[in-house]
Amino acid sequence: MAQTPKKGRSEMKKNKTTRRAFLRGVLGGAAVTVALPMLDLFLDDNGEALADGSALPRRFGIYYWGNGMIPDRWTPEGTGMGDAWKLSPELALLEPVKDDITVITGMSVKAQNIEPHWSGIAAILSGVPLLHRSQQDYTFAAPSIDQLIADEVGKNTRFPSLELGAQPRLGLSHRGPDQINPAEDSPQRLFERIFGVGFRAPGDNSEPDPSIGWRRSVLDVVKEDNERFKKKLGARDRIRLEQHFEGVRALELRLARLQEDPPQLAACSVPEMPTSDFPDIDGRPQLKAKNRAMCDVLALALACDQTRVFSNFITWPLNNLLLAQTSGGHHQLTHDEPGDQPQVDTIVTELMGELSYMIQALRNIPEGEGTLLDNCAVFATSDVSLGKTHSLDEFPIILAGGAGGKLKTGMHYRSAARENANKVLLTLLRAMGLQLAEFGVDETYTQDGLTAVEA
Amino acid sequence: MGYLTKHSLLLLSLLASFALAGCAEPEDTPPEQEPEDTEQQQIVDYSEDTCDDNSGERHVYLVRTMAVARETETGVARGFDLDDAVSENGGSTGCGRPDFTSPDGEEGIDNQFARLLPTIESVGGAAFETLVQNAINEGDLLILIELTDVDSLENDGCVGLDVMYGVGTPYLSTDSYVEPWQTYDIDINRPHSSVDEVAIRGGRLEAGPLLFQIPFAVFDFIFPVDLLDARIQLDFDAKERTGSGLISGAITVENMLDIANGIEGGEQFPPLIDRIGRRMADLQPDDEKKCQALSTAMTIDVIGAFIYPDSERFE
Amino acid sequence: MFETSSRRRKRALESIALSFVLFTFGATSGCGGEKSPEDTTQPEAVEQPAEADLEIPAASVPRLTAAQYRNSVQDIFGEDIITPPTLEPDIESGGFTAIGAGISTVSPRGVELYEEGAYAISVQLVAEDKRERLTDCAPFSPQDEDCFEAIVDRIGPRLFRRPIGGEERAKYVALGKKIGGEANDFWVGARYMLAAMLQSPNFLWRGELGTPKADSSGRRTLNNYELASRLSFFLWNTTPDDALLEAAREGELSTSKGLEEHTRRMLEDDRAKVGMRAFFSDIFDLDALLELTKDPTIYKVYSPELGLWAREQTLLTIEDLIFEDQDFRTLMNTRETYLNRKLASMYGVVSPTREGFARTTLPEDSQRFGLIGHASVLSLYSHPVSTSATLRGKFIRERLLCDIIPSPPADVDTSIPEPSGETPTLRDRVAEHLENPSCAGCHNKMDPIGLALENFDGVGVWREDDDGHAIDPSGNLDGEDFTTPAELADLLTNHPRLTRCMVQHAIQYSTGNRLTPAQQPLITYLDIEFAASEFRFKELIVALVLSPIFRETTAPSDDIDHGADAEEGEE
C-alpha cells in the first residue's frame, strides 16, 4: 500500500539552505532512502508551488480497459455537480472517489468505424482515425495523446512516460505509426525499472557512480554508428531508425541527470518491492492483485517525479480473458451473452473498481495543500461503448483529478448532441499546457474543448 | 505405503492354480468412432459366442474410483449373496450375522465390511475413500481389467477377463480423477488373476471366482488385502466405454490381523481387529463353525485405458 | 535420381492445372480414409518469369527479433551465456512477426533493455573463465591497443555480420582504451567496448540493402554478406556461422552454385530445425499456444502444459515432413504424427512413448487427419469455453489458403444465440451468420469449414455429439462437398491454393515483406518448382533462395542516393 507521510508545517525557520546541506545536518551525512517528513520549506508560502517558483508539476495518465461497457448500466442519473447526480451500477465502486471524478457521457467518437474496436481506440487515444494500410494491417496514424503530452512535460523527468498494465499485451501508447511503447506487465520489473539500480532517492548524496560516465561514452559511440547506418537507408526506414536513435539520445540525457542531484519532492519514498508476478490461477488472470501492486509503485514513481505521464492498460482490446469468475472470455461474452449481459456488467464493474483503486493511490500522496491527484489529469476510456455492437456513440469517458486547478471534478456531464469526443482530448491537452488551437483531422477535427468540464 | 511381500508370495502361489484366459489378442480398439453410416447397421448377436474363435477386440479398463459399499439406510447395502443364504441375526447361517438387502430389494447381501469400516475409521486416520483415491491418483493403485475377445459390450457369450496392476504416473483431470485413455505398463511383480469364459448380458458382466486385492486403507497407509472367491459385476456404457459395478469377496480376519500387527504406532489395532473381526465374521466357518472371514463389497467405476504393446506380460 | 528439371516442371504444372480442373468440375475422390495427394502426367514447359515481370520489393530492414538476438548471442559467444530475460517485444504486422520486424522500431524502453542486456552479456564474457572467447591476447596494460584490436577483429565480424574496416575498428579500440584507462582495468574497457557493439545498429538491425545494379533498373544485388545474413536468419533464425562468413569472404554466395551448396549444407544441419520452427510458429501463430488458457471446469483435460505440448506435436510433425523430404501437402491429411503420453490419452490412442514425444500412426478408423486434427490449431482457434467454427474456418482460409477475409462491419450485433431447444448445436447457432446478407459473404467462407470440425471440442478431444445433439460435419469447400473431417482434410491436401499459400508465406517470411499482386508471377513460378520437386519443402527453399526475390532488392522509392559510398568492409 502507498505510504502516507505525515502532513504538517515544519517548525523550523526558513533559512536559505541548500538541500544537501540540510540533509547532511539532520542525518549526519548518511545516505538515506526512506521517506523524509513533509518538508514544507521546499514549498512556497502557500504550499502551492515549488520553492523555486515553478508550479507544482501537472501529471497526466490514461486508464484503459478493453471491450467497452453497457451504456444503460453506465450512464449516471442526473447531471451537474455534487449531489445532482448519482453513480450508476457499473460505476458503483467509484463511490470513494466520486468527488474527484468527472463522468462524461453521450460523446461520440467521430471516426469511421471501419475496424471494430481499433477504429475506436485509435481515435480516442490519438484523436485521429486509424491508419488502415490493408486488410490485416493497421496502426495509429499519429501519436497517442500521452506521448504528445510527454513531449511537452516529460523532458525533465527521468522517464518521459511510463506504460504499464496487468494484461496489456503490448499496450496502446504510440509514438507514431507502428511505434509502440511496450507496457510493463510485471510488478517486479516495473519496480526494478524505476526504483532499482539508477534510482537516487532524496537524501542520497553519495557520489554518482563512475560507470555512468562510461555508459555515456559508450552511447556516444553508438550514436556515431547510428548516424552512419542511417545514411544508407531510404526515408521510410530512416524514420524507424530515427526513433531508435531518439531513444538512445534520451537514455543519454537520463544518464546525465543521474549524475546530478536526486529529486526533491517530499512525498518521495521507495515503495515495497512487489514479491510476486501474480501468475494466472486456473486460467484466470489475477487482475486485481497485479493492478494494485503496479498502482502502488506508480503512485510513488509520480511522487518521486520519475515521470509525469503514465498509462495503465489494464486489459487489451478484444481480449478474451476469463475475468471476474465469469463463464466465458470477455470478448466472447460481449457478443454471445444474451439479454442484459449480467456477466459483462460484472466485468465492467470490477474494472471500474480497479480505476477507483488507482485514483485513490494517487490521492493518498500528499502534495502541497492537497494531494498528487489534485495535480493530475487522469483519462479513463475504452475502445467502444457497447461491446456487442462495437458502437462509438455513448463513448465511455471518465476524468479524474483537477489538473492543478484546470479541470472541474465531482461532475456528470451529459452531451445532448453526440458531441465530438475530441473535445475532451483538446481540453486535456490544453490543461497539460499544450497550446493547441485545434485537434483531429476530417471527421474528428475540432477547435473546441469541452468547456463545461474546464475550471 | 506399506506392502507386505510375504503376502504377495502367498498370493502368487495361490495364483498358480489360475490359468490365463486363452482368447486371442487382436489390436487394441481406439475409442474414436466413425460417424454413423447412413445405411442401417447390421446387428450381430454375439450372445451365443463361444470362446473358440478369436474374433473379438481387446479392451482395457482402469479402476478410477473404488469405495466400500456402505450401509446407506439401516439394513441396506450393495453387494452379493456370497454364501447363497439369507442370514439373520443369531441365525444358523452366516455365523449368525445378519445379511443386508440391496437397494433393489434383493436379500441375502453379504457385506460385513460395511459394518466394520466405520469402527476402524473412528479409531483414527483419514477416510478410506480419500486414502484409496490418493493412491489411485498417484499411480500406486492402478488396477487394470483387461477383457479379451470382446465382440459386444451389450451381449457377448464369451470374453476373457484378466485383472492386474498397472505402472505409470497418471495425468489427472481438473476435477482430480485419472483421465481416461492413458497407457500403462503391467506390473508383473504384483499379483494378477484371470477368469475364462465370462459372459456379458444386457451390458452387464459377471465373473468369478477370481482373486482380487483390495486396498485396506487405514492410518494413512494402504495395504493390499486379498479378496478371496471374489466376484465382479460391471455394467458397461458401450458408447462412453466406461463401466461401474461391484467387486465382492471374503477377507480373512487372519489376513487383517497380519496387517494390523505390522502397522507401527497402531498398537490398539490388532486387539480391535481380533475382537470385532471375529465377532463380525460371516464366511468360511471352520470345523467349530466359527467364521474366519468377513464379506466385503467394493463399488468401482472404470474408464478406458491402454497397455503398452511392449509391456512385460505374464507368461 | 530425379527427372530432369524441365520434365519435372511439366509434370508439376500439369498437377496444378489438374487440381484446378478437379476443383472446378467437382470431381471428388470419394470416401474418407487417407489418400495420397494427386499426381498427374502431361507436359508444358514453364520458365522463370521474365526480368521485366519481376517486381522485387525494397529491403525491409528488419530489427532483430528477440529470439534472433538471443540465438545470435549464444551462437557467437556460447550457449552457456545467459541472455536478457526481457527485450523489446516483437510486433506483428497482419499477424506475422517476420513482417512486423520490418516495420518495428525501438521504443525508449527497448533502448533501456538493450543497454541493460549489453552489460549483462558483456560482464559474463570478461569473467576470467570466459575471456578466451574474446581473445587469446594477454593484455600487458589497461590500455593495450593490440589486445583491444584482437577482440574487435575476432568478435566484430560475427556481431556485425560483415568485416570491420579500419576506421570503425579504431573507434571501438579508442573507446576500450579510454575506459580501460579510467578504470585502470583492461577488462573493464573490453566490457564497455563490447557493450557498445551489442547496442550498435549494425548488430540490432539487418541492413540487407544491396548494391545498385549497373543497369540503372533500380534493382540492387545483395552482396555476399547480406546474402549470408538473410540466409542464416531464414534457415537457422540466427546470425551466420563461421563457415558461412568464410564463404561470404570468398565470394561463394554470388554464384548460384555456391549459394545452393550452402543452402543445402545449412538445411542438413540441426539448426535448420530451429529456423523452420520459427517460420511455422510465425505463420500459424503457434507461440500463442504458450499462453493457451481454457476454462478448467469445462475442459477437464486442460492443464497449463497443454498448449506447449500441442505446439510441440505440430512442430515435430512438420519437421518430419520437411527433413524426411515428404510431400509437404500431406501435412493436411497425414495420419503420421508425434505424440506424448498426454496427447495420446486426449486422442484416445496408445501412447507411443513413456516419456517425451515419439512418432506414431493414428488408427485406421480415426477421423483425425493432418494439421486440422492437431490439438494445437483446434484449441488455439477456439474460445476458452467453447469451439469456434468461425475462428477455425478463418485459420484455414487465411493461413492455409491465403484467402483474405475482411473485418466484420462495425456497428452490428454480432451475438449468436445461446444453445437452446431450437438451436442446440453450433451449426444451428451460427445459421444467422449465413442467412443475414451482411454477414454471409464472409462467413460463408469460414463457418462451413469450421463446422466440419465440430466433433473436436475446444481442446481438440473427439466427441460423438454436442451435449447429446448430433453433429453434422458436412459442408463444401470451394465447390467440393465433404461429409467428414477426413474428407475435408483430403480436399485441403489437393487444394490448388494450399501450396501457393506456402510459397507466399515462405517469400514473405524470408524477405520480411508483404507480397503484392505484382509478385504473382514469381509465386506461380516457385509454386511450379515446388510441385516439380514433388512438394519437398527443402526444394522450395532452395528454389526461393536462388530466385531474384531473395537475392535482390529494390531501391526504396524515396531513396537519397548514397550508392557510391561503399561501406567499410562491405563489397
Helix content of chain C: 40-55%
Separation of the first and last Cα atoms of chain C: 38 Å
Q: What string, H for helix and E for strand, traces the elements of chain A in order?
A: HEHEEHEEHEEEHHHHEHHEEEEEH
Unreliable spans of chain A are: 1-44
Radius of gyration of chain A: 22 Å
Number of strands of chain A: 14
Q: pLDDT under 50 segments of chain C (min length 5)?
A: 1-5, 18-34, 40-45, 560-571
Helix content of chain A: 25-40%
Summed up, the helix count of chain C is 24
Strand-pairing-aware structural class of chain A: alpha/beta
The number of distinct β-strands of chain C equals: 9
β-strand percent of chain A reads: 5-15%
Spatial sequence of strands, sheet with the most strands of chain C = 1-2-9
Biggest sheet record of chain C? 3 strands, antiparallel
| Tally of alpha and pi helices of chain A | 11
Output the strand order for the largest sheet of chain A: 2-14-3-13-12-1-9-6
The percentage of residues in β strands of chain C lies in: under 5%
- The average pLDDT score of chain A comes to 85
Care to describe what's here?
The complex is a heterotrimer of chains A (455), B (315) and C (571). Chain A is built from eleven helices and 14 strands. With 455 residues, chain A is of the alpha/beta class. The N terminus of chain A is likely disordered. Chain B has 315 residues and is of the alpha+beta class. Chain B is built from five helices and ten strands. In chain B, helix 4 packs antiparallel against helix 5. The two termini of chain B are 28 Å apart. The N terminus of chain B is likely disordered. Chains in contact: A-C, B-C. The interface between A and C is large, with 72 and 74 residues.
